[in-house]
Write a structure and sequence with these properties.
By secondary structure, this protein is α+β, with helices and mostly antiparallel strands. 45% of the residues lie in helices and 21% in strands. Strand 15 (606-609) and strand 16 form a beta hairpin. Mean pLDDT is 81; it is low at 142-146, 148-154 and 291-320. One of its GO terms (biological process) is chemotaxis.
Length: 705
């Protein structure tokens, strides 16, 4: 797939996301003209670009949808539930066609596509027939000449000549000139002539260079500044000149268009001088002698041919410059940064071994710069949660309608940023949790009213930073999860016996066990508990944790905690004999010392820390590490899901920045299931990175159950 094709698919995906969000807002406020205009322009752009790249099925859908929204934009019809449903269904097909490169995967999809296309065309036909009937009636209504003149003056049409000459490097900035030309089309009646005289021989063409330029004629009622705004993001990578050439529409004049066609194919091409000369010449023709004086007034050439785009940008206080970068390139960059971190550790170790003050100073400065590079690289790879939040608006809308439930869905903290690799794998787990809330959490209106609640259910999704991690919380005000029912189900399945002590919170979190469900009937949409083990597994694969809090008839809160990055870990380096371990810093509470002979002096693998009995995890024993333990060992307390344990090690080396690598076949005979991975240290040896969450869960299970 060539780079232009890739960029097209990326931008279509963005357009579709914007379109979906605009429609969801439009559904709440159907008379919002700005949103209607936005939907129309996206449809127009999708129609043009999809046809250009051979995606005719997308073009067919958007062509007729554009017509429908043009009726709405011109207030010839109102936005209806039927139109919204047709548009949302079209969006679903556009997503499929983007994923399948314009192919419908099955005969069933082909039939559904043809049915949808027929429904849209039928709607267009109905609107056109209705409008024709209204227009015929309107012909019987006279308008005074004075009134007509007032209407024309309010929206006076003028004609502009636009010279748009992109710089050769324009495409490398992520800007597509064809999309900007499409936006010009949306401003009025437009005629475009392509200049391709600078295109080199085939073997000399560079993939990301732009060799084309355009002469554009636009008849519009818009201001010059509005036209210039279309080209705002190409400000530093193009030459743009906008000239007003007439105080009336010229594009209906066939002689003018024919002359411009002739000029476009000659060596000199179209120019402001040739246009002015033609208009003056045309105004002197015998057939137009009576209009001569008026025609002279209409030929207007402005003194400043070049529009200052920087003034427009500064007037809006928005001089933002951005570029589009392939996700693959970001991954490659992070791999290089990871290797640099490993090299930096080797440099620091080498400086210490050689006892060189100069080399140590270089290593320290390199470390500072590398930390800046790491932090900036991580920031580049961060993606706002809003990118997936927006997907869920549609889910809640559709499921609410299917289940005939009145649900208000709100989000908060969409600006919270997370590593893109986490975002890519987070959508499905959240999707499943939301389905559960909609299907089995929120009651029907009748039940809610009977329980003293409002008929309208609420689901709130929020994200925020806390304790060096990202937290995602899903709250609903539904019927909640009954811990008593959970216990009964667990006993029935043989997971617990009747004497097993279990708090309500622990009981509720049993729904994460494989195949555990309390749903009394099977649902096509979800089942609270069905697949929750997979949700937890996905979250833990992202080095995260999930837990649930719920109150009967009050609602349920599901909390997900995630690291900011998956590839680089700030941790504490510890040793057990000569084996090195890294504990993620986000899990560490405090550090203590303990005498070796005190370790097993407690009861049931508990040690006393700050007057509190805490279960401990002895690293030497768990990983079968031989050798004699030191007389004084050290304790690190770590917390997971509110549960605290003590991790006993030989020695704490200090803070350590590590690059997480997969374990592979390392031949670890014991404890491998408790590791996140490994990291290569400065001397080339391997340190094992501990999974604090799994350690806590395993230890608490061993001690208390």
């Amino acid at each position: 797939m060539d780079s232009l094709h890739e960029k097209f698919l990326e931008e279509v995906t963005e357009f579709v996301a914007d379109l979906e969000n605009a429609l969801l807002e439009l559904e709440k406020n159907p008379e919002n003209q700005k949103l209607i205009e936005k939907v129309f322009r996206i449809m127009h752009t999708l129609k043009g670009t999809s046809a250009m790249f051979g995606f005719d099925k997308i073009g067919n859908l958007t062509h007729d949808l554009e017509t429908i929204y043009e009726f709405i934009r011109e207030q010839k019809t109102a936005l209806s539930e039927e139109i919204l449903s047709l548009t949302f269904a079209s969006i679903d097909f556009i997503k499929i066609l983007v994923d399948t490169n314009n192919e419908l995967p099955t005969e069933e999809y082909k039939l559904k596509y043809e049915t949808l296309l027929f429904s849209i065309k039928r709607k267009v036909d109905i609107l056109e027939r209705n409008h024709s009937a209204i227009a015929e009636t309107a012909n019987d209504i006279s308008v005074s000449a004075e009134d007509a003149e007032i209407v024309l003056d309010e929206k006076k049409i003028v004609t502009y000549y636009i010279q748009f000459i992109p710089a050769g490097h324009l495409l490398t900035t992520g800007v597509n000139p064809l999309y900007m030309i499409d936006d010009v089309y949306a401003l009025g009646e437009c005629k475009v002539f392509l200049r391709n005289k600078n295109v080199p021989d085939l073997l000399q063409i560079q993939e990301e260079s732009c060799y084309l330029s355009w002469d554009i004629f636009l008849s519009t009622s818009e201001e010059k500044s509005t036209i210039a705004e279309v080209f705002l993001f190409a400000e530093d990578a193009c030459t743009l000149k906008i000239h007003k050439i007439a105080d009336k529409p010229l594009l209906q004049d066939n002689a003018f268009i024919q002359k411009m066609k002739e000029l476009s194919v000659v060596t000199e091409g179209i120019s402001l001088g040739s246009i002015t000369a033609y208009l003056h010449s045309a105004s002197k023709e015998p057939a137009r002698k009576e209009e001569k004086a008026e025609a002279k007034k209409e030929v207007v050439v402005e003194d400043e041919p070049k529009v200052s785009l920087s003034k427009i940008a500064s007037s809006k206080n928005n001089s933002l410059t951005s570029i589009r970068v392939a996700s693959r390139k970001l991954d490659e960059m992070m791999n290089v940064v990871s290797e640099l971190i490993t090299m930096q550790a080797r440099l620091t170790l080498f400086a210490e071994k050689n006892n060189s003050a100069e080399l140590t100073s270089i290593a320290e400065n390199f470390d500072k710069l590398l930390r800046q590079l790491r932090d900036n690289s991580l920031k580049i790879c961060l993606v706002p949660m809003e990118t997936i939040f927006s997907r869920f608006q549609r889910l809640v809308r559709d499921l609410s309608k299917d289940l005939q439930k009145n649900i208000v869905f709100s989000t908060e903290g969409g600006e919270t940023e997370v590593d893109k690799s986490i975002i890519e794998n987070l959508s499905d787990p959240i999707l499943h949790l939301l389905r559960n809330s909609i299907d089995h959490g929120i009651e029907d209106a009748e039940t809610r009213i009977r329980n003293g609640k409002s008929a309208q259910g609420k689901i709130h999704l929020k994200a925020f930073y806390s304790e060096g991690m990202v937290q995602i919380v899903i709250e609903d005000d539904g019927k909640g999860i009954d811990p008593k029912r959970i216990r009964e189900k667990a006993i029935e399945k043989g997971i617990l016996n009747e004497t097993t002590p279990l708090t309500d919170k622990e009981a509720i979190n049993l729904i994460f066990l494989p195949g555990f469900s309390t749903a009394q009937k099977v649902s096509e949409i979800s089942g609270r508990g069905v697949g929750m083990d997979v949700v937890r597994q996905r979250i833990e694969e992202l080095r995260g944790e999930i837990y649930i809090d719920s109150k009967v008839n009050k609602g349920t809160t599901m909390t997900i905690k995630l690291p900011l990055s998956l590839s680089i870990i700030d941790g504490i380096l510890v040793k057990a004999d000569d084996t090195c371990f890294v504990i993620p810093l986000s899990a560490v509470d405090k550090c203590y010392e303990i005498r070796h002979d005190e370790i097993h002096a407690g009861f049931n693998d508990l040690v006393i820390i700050d007057g509190e009995q805490v279960p401990f995890y002895y690293l030497r024993e768990e990983f079968a590490i031989s050798g004699e333990a030191p007389a004084i060992e050290q304790i690190i307390t770590i917390t997971y899901e509110g549960q605290k344990i003590a991790l006993i090690v030989d020695r704490i080396v200090g803070e350590y920045q590590s690059v997480l690598k997969p374990l592979g076949a390392m031949g670890i005979s014991k404890g491998q299931e408790l590791l996140l991975g490994a990291t290569i240290m400065g001397d080339g040896t391997v340190a094992l990175v501990l999974d604090s969450g799994k350690i806590v869960k395993q230890l608490l299970h061993k001690v208390f159950i």
